[in-house]
Structures are given as C-alpha cells and as structure tokens.
Amino acid sequence: MSETSIAVVDSRTLVALLGTCDQHLRKIRKSLNVSISSHDGRIHIEGEPVAVSKATEILNQLQTHLQQCGSLAVEDVDRVLAEVAEGREPVACPAISVSGGREVRPRTAGQTKYIDAMRRSDLVMCAGPAGTGKTYLAVAMAVAALRAEAVRKIVLVRPAVEAGESLGFLPGDLQAKINPYLRPLMDALREMIEYDVIKRYREEDIIEIIPLAYMRGRTLNQAFMILDEAQNTTVSQMKMFLTRMGEGSKIVVSGDTTQVDLPRGTRSGLIDALERLRGLKSVTAVKLTASDIVRHPLVQRIVDAYDGRTKRRS
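The structure corresponding to this sequence follows.
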C-alpha cells in the first residue's frame, strides 16, 4: 500500500475539486479503487502505488484546470480520467472571449486543436460526430472575431436538405420556412450574445443566418463564414460556398461524415473537400472523435453503440 497528500490552493478550490456531495472524489475512488479524503486543506490518497500515482496526477490536473478555467464539471473529470488512463497529454485551456466577459474553453485535446486551427488558418474543415462542439466552438470564434473587429460580419449557413433547398412548398414567409433548419445556429449564438443584441445585429446585417441556397452569386469580404451540416452539401454546392470568400474573410466548414442525408449516389461535398483540398496552404482539416463529445455522457456511449453496430454489419 502507498499513500500521499496534495496541497490545495484554497478552500474554494477544494470544494470544487470534491464536487457536489463529493461526486468528483467518488468517481475517482471508484475508477482507481483508492481511498481519498480531505483534511486541513489537503487531499489524502491511499491505495496501491500505481493507483495512488494516477489519482495524484488526476487531482493535480483537475486543480490546474480549475485555475485556468474557473470551473470543474463532471465531464472534465471524465476527460481527465480518460487522459490519464490512456496516457494522453493533458488538454490546455485556451479561452475564447465572447460577449459580456464570458469565455468559452475547449474541454478535449481535439477541441483544442480545432480552436488552434481556426486561429491559424483561413479555411478550416472539421468532421466529427454529434456533441463534439463543432458548431458551438465555430460560433464562439466568430463572435470573438467580431468583438475584436477582426471581421465586420458573421454569416451562418446551413443546407436545407430536407426541403430540397427550394423551400418553396413550405408554408409561411422566408423566415418561417428557414427557421427550423437554422435553429441550431441560433441556439449557439444565443448562448453568447444577448437576444436584443442579436436582433440589432441581424437588422443591421452584421449577423446573417441563411440557407446555403442564398449564398450563390455573393462575395463576402471581412466576414467569418460558418457552413454547418456540410456533409449534406453536394460537391458543386461546396465549391459555390467556398468561392464566396473575399478579402479578410475566414471560413469554417463542419459536419458529420457518417450522417449524410443526400440522395443515394450523390457524393458529399464535405467528404470531397476533405480529400480534394488536403495539403493546400491556409487550409486545415480537423478530425474529432467520440472522445471529444462533451454533451451528456450517455451521448458518447450512444455514438459508440451505433459505430459498433455499423462495424458488425460491414
């Protein structure tokens, strides 16, 4: 048996490390089969030497995360447990400053690479399953770029595949027709900007949220352009969208290549672009996986279950 203790910065950090009703400590205890307790501003660990070493590393990483990010969620504990178990490098916590002093931070190594790519490259293509933050982080970067006056407008785009991109047969005016398809983009935006500000920005054409069909024939300068659900574009639609880029603009294209809703035999524009544009200067491709999912922990298990089922059938 082995034992050690860790000094905690302050009582507030200690409370956050323990979690509500000690839920974080219970999770670590159960995962590593160690005894963990707190006393006099220190956390004490006892158990088998290897398990004590891992628990110490996990708690130190969680304390560092708290100092960098200011909060600690159950998902963060799960991520650090997985990183230590698999010998992966700990995730840095670069902040994206959005409105009202709020900061958005990556929770996984894959998300960190995604943010770095968006900061470095003019065109970023990101593929990954649901819940990996593809859209949310892209919108956060767009809001940060607008606040920093690096761009003059944000353009959020989605293909309305289910409506055949015509939208004509749907009831209501244009806004009523496209709202169901653009709702996920608006949901992300509302978490970062007050509703009244979004409304004003849209009235002043500083923020556009439009279906892909309405991008044809335009050239956008100093714009942050996001194409969401890009796996549902055709090759010609993808080419059309990418060639809308003007001076000082940035494009982020995201989608899940396992969830293509195009007619059978139609090649996905995202899959084609990932192959066709590989290696071009100022173009970066990022691949997120199930380990980057930051929604409810059950989402990752659902994705794994469906991936496993696909492999068994193939």
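Residues 49-69 form the longest helix (21 residues).
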